[in-house]
Specification:
Number of strands: 7
Shape: globular
Radius of gyration: 15 Å
Strand content: 15-25%
Order of helices and strands: EEHHEEHEEEHHH
Number of helices: 6
Strand order of the largest sheet: 1-2-3-4-5-6-7
Number of domains: 1
């Protein structure tokens, strides 16, 4: 087990990279904090035992099967002043029948969540389920190891 992993918080493994959930969330207005906590609960409900990784410098929290952002996370929460981005690492490949996803990148997409009512949207829950299932399938198929190996080679060259 990697350093920093292993203790549980409401069924989540927590890997504090350079911050804590509370420190990241406390910088936001109360209404935004409530939305962040609702999204956190949604993710934990959809994927019990999810690994939570607070990224203090980047001021977001990643969720997945391990601490590696690009290869082991399926989504992230990024609080802003007036909304919260619920982002998806492979969002461009997700089905989005309700057209919730925003963004034009090659992989990442996000949903702007502005209220507790929007956080409770069943279509949002479905996106989280699909993203988590996709990551689990990639892990099963060995795609994650390939992605991690490619990333390690890239960093060694730099």
């Amino acid at each position: 087990m990697a350093p920093g992993l292993g203790h549980r918080l409401d069924g989540r493994r927590v890997c504090p990279v350079n911050g804590t959930f509370e420190k990241i969330v406390s910088a936001s207005p109360k209404e935004i904090q409530d939305v962040v906590r609702a999204l956190r609960a949604l993710i934990a409900d959809v994927y019990p035992g999810v690994t939570e990784v607070p990224w203090g410098v980047q001021k977001n929290i990643g969720y997945g099967i391990g601490p590696r952002k690009q290869s082991e996370h399926f989504c992230y929460i990024f609080p802003h002043a007036h909304h919260v981005n619920l982002g998806f690492m492979q969002g461009a490949a997700l089905p989005d029948p309700k057209s919730l996803l925003e963004g034009a990148g090659t992989r990442l997409r996000h949903v702007k969540v502005r209220s507790l009512a929007e956080a409770a949207n069943p279509a949002l829950r479905e996106l989280v389920k699909i993203a988590a299932a996709r990551l689990a399938q990639e892990r099963h198929d060995g795609i994650l190891q390939h992605r991690h190996d490619a990333s390690a080679r890239k960093h060694r060259r730099q």
